[in-house]
Amino acid sequence: MTHLQAGLSPETLEKAKVELKENPETLHQDIQEVRDMIITRPDIGFLRTDDAFILRFLRARKFNHFEAFRLLAQYFEYRQQNLDMFKNLKPTDPGIKQALKDGFPGVLSNLDKYGRKILVLFAANWDQSRYTFVDILRAILLSLESMIEDPELQVNGFILIIDWSNFTFKQASKLTPSMLRLAIEGLQDSFPARFGGIHFVNQPWYIHALYTVIRPFLKDKTRKRIFMHGNNLNSLHQLIHPEILPSELGGMMPPYDMGTWARTLLDHAYDEETDYCPESYTLSVQDLERDLEKNMSPKTMKRSQSVVEPGVLKRPDKVKSEEDNMQPLLSLD
Question: Where is this region: Disordered (predicted)?
Fold first, then answer.
């Protein structure tokens, strides 16, 4: 075991070896091979290239050198292309702070049986008069940056549960295809985290419509890890034991305190009052949407439009039963 593996338990060391093909004898060589590829992308500013940083990208791509480098490049390229999103990326930023205090994201104290950290989002908490969807995305990315420092989570990964209870059509109308694509690019394509499952519960028909819009932008691997439970919490509990879930998700734990994770990040700044409204945010969401739409290739736009007209939520003629909406249960690595 090298010093780069010092934070791993014996069980996680074995998991890294078996599932991720992590070999302590070649670890430094693996890292250097990824680092040597940086010269092939002079258009990107690689602001951090130390061993520990590159290692998390290797773990996220099961030590495939080329895929790890591509993820590393996309990580910095995403930040270059969305500079305003990453200005003042800290918990005390007014928009981020408001989102964190409303539980975006929530982080459960207990890990699942595979050692994965569980993130929860209660969608109806989004107060659109106080912060934007981009603020929520920034709060999530900031939180992941903090948590991915833990080598155990680099190996074991994360689970995401989104509860759509009481999420209104009006709120959903703010989730434009461009904004959703921005989130997909930031989380699926540009961040070194292993997501073992993404669970939707209590989703209304218009969330199914939005999922249809974004589905073409999801990798096949991601699509297979999205579970639509609807009101069937029993199917959720087959994958995540209710002993570690809050009561809102049919679990045995007390109701989730939305400020738990925010207090961890903000510490003494949690109770400080901050004047903020979304309109004062330096990033223009409308400009960002226009830039995203402009950058979409004709082929991509054609695929998106063939599924559903962007920006329009159409009620399906027939909504599938919750049992039909539930994806097949499968073993997640």
Answer: 293-333
pLDDT tens string, the chain, 333 residues long: the values are 688 998 899 999 999 999 999 999 999 999 999 999 999 999 999 999 999 999 999 999 999 999 999 999 999 999 999 999 999 999 999 999 999 999 999 999 999 999 999 999 999 999 999 999 999 999 999 999 999 999 999 999 999 999 999 999 999 999 988 999 999 999 999 999 999 999 999 999 999 999 998 999 999 999 999 999 999 999 999 999 999 999 999 999 999 999 999 999 998 777 777 656 665 444 445 555 555 455 444 444 344 333 333 344 545 444 444 334 444 333 333
Residue 216 lies in a domain: yes
Asked whether residue 206 falls in the same domain as residue 71, the answer is no
Q: How many CB atoms lie within 10 A of CB 240?
A: 20
Residue 307 lies in a domain: no
Our CA angle for 64, 144, 11, nearest 5°, is 60
Q: Domain span at residue 12? A: 3-86
Of 204, 205, 191, 176, give the one whose Cα is nearest residue 304: 176
112 and 143 part of one domain: yes
Residue 306 burial (10 A CB sphere; 0-12, 13-18, 19+)? exposed
Per-residue tokens: 187: 């989380």
Any idea what the Cα angle at residue 105 is, between residues 101 and 106, rounded to 5°? 85
Alpha-carbon span 24 to 1, nearest angstrom: 6
- Alpha-carbon distance of 96 to 77, in angstroms, equals 22
DSSP H helical ranges for 173-314: 177-187, 205-214, 220-223, 233-239, 260-266, 285-295, 298-307
